[in-house]
């Protein structure tokens, strides 16, 4: 039997001593069997936590996927194997903290190939698309945007939103009559459209055209901040977070579109934890409020859209507050 097959079998059976000797004799921990499963996935699926740990210690990739996009963490989670799940989650978080491997490849919506801001965009009633038929923003997110607006406006005062898109969150923010409502938008066509729709004439609205990265020094301080851009990586959002201590008033509330790894349940959990840890290191606590989204998302929603950027049943709405204030 090839060493990869032997590893898969020992992993399935939880034979830790066989696993160790196969690893010591150079067994291939990255092997995929005929069903597209790795030894790590077999161990996770059967809840053999010690085997999971041995394979991870031998550099088995925690983020390998089966042909139907299932990871070892998903197997452990679906079967309710808490210990194996915890080992995988901790390893994944450590790996992403150090390497950010998924963050560099994946982002909430779209991808950063080419410069989205130079591309044409197409507007329709229920979505905005980029030139590659990827959705920039979709109407199914309306209830989520309303919940985000409610969160960031809960103290009233001065509100900042980054990324206008379809204006869903901004329309909802207006319902709370904030003292001021600043919107940053970088795409010329989205900007033109919002101006034509009269956003420039609203009394409490201030619109700043440009990339947030280029205009950030002009910003003041805010009671509520929402962040939802397109065509950027997780690392861009992480860079934005570095500015929060200057932008968010004491007691203020920050939230962001939480589409992190929205195509895979386990990766999503990894990124929810990662972003919470990174915000914690800046002095913010993050509460993740579960919102069911299954009912807003029939198959027809994605007709004509190249990539489903969201495939999970629950959306976790982040509400972040300075820890010194929320104590
Ligand atoms: C997903 S949409 C925002 C949707 C919005 N939350 C809503 O409720 O309709 C993202 C928006 O961010 C804009 N954007 C992308 N990169 C940006 C950047 N660096 N600075 C400011 N806006 C940006 C895009 O042009 C797009 O309009």
UniProtKB/TrEMBL annotation:
The lineage of its organism: Eukaryota, Viridiplantae, Streptophyta, Embryophyta, Tracheophyta. Keywords: ANK repeat, Cytoplasm, Methyltransferase, Nucleus, S-adenosyl-L-methionine, Transferase. This is Protein arginine N-methyltransferase 2. ANK repeats lie at residues 35-67. SMART domains: ANK. S-adenosyl-L-methionine-dependent protein-arginine N-methyltransferase that methylates the delta-nitrogen atom of arginine residues to form N5-methylarginine (type IV) in target proteins. Monomethylates ribosomal protein L12. Residues 107-327 form the RMT2 domain. PROSITE patterns: ANK_REP_REGION (PS50297), ANK_REPEAT (PS50088), SAM_RMT2 (PS51559). It comes from the Eukaryota. It is found in: Cytoplasm; Nucleus. Monomer. The gene is LOC101264002. Signal peptide: none annotated.
């Amino acid at each position: 039997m090839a060493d990869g097959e032997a590893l898969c079998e020992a992993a399935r059976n939880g034979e830790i001593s066989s696993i160790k000797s196969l690893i010591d004799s150079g067994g291939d921990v990255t092997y995929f069997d005929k069903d597209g499963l790795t030894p790590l996935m077999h161990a996770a699926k059967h809840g053999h936590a010690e085997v999971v740990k041995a394979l991870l210690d031998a550099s088995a990739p925690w983020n390998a996927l089966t042909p139907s996009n299932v990871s070892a963490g998903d197997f452990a989670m679906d079967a309710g194997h808490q210990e194996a799940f915890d080992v995988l989650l901790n390893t994944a978080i450590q790996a992403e903290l150090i390497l950010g491997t998924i963050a560099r490849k994946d982002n909430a919506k779209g991808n950063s190939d080419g410069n989205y801001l130079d591309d044409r965009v197409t507007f329709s009633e229920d979505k905005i698309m980029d030139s590659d038929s990827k959705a920039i923003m979709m109407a199914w997110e309306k209830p989520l945007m309303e919940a985000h607006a409610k969160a960031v406006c809960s103290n009233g005062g001065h509100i900042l939103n980054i990324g206008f898109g379809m204006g869903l969150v901004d329309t909802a923010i207006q319902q709370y009559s904030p003292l001021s409502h600043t919107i940053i938008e970088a795409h010329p066509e989205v900007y033109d459209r919002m101006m034509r729709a009269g956003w420039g004439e609203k009394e409490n609205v201030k619109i700043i055209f440009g990339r947030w990265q280029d205009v950030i020094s002009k910003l003041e301080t805010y009671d509520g901040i929402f962040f939802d851009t397109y065509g950027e990586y997780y690392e861009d959002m992480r860079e934005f977070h570095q500015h929060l201590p200057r932008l968010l008033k004491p007691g203020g509330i920050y939230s962001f579109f939480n589409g992190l790894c929205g195509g895979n349940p386990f990766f999503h959990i990894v990124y929810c934890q990662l972003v919470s840890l990174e915000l914690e290191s800046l002095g913010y606590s993050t509460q993740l409020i579960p919102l069911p989204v299954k009912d807003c998302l029939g198959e027809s929603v994605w007709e004509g859209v190249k990539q489903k950027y969201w495939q999970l049943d629950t959306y976790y709405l982040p509400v972040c507050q300075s820890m010194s204030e929320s104590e």
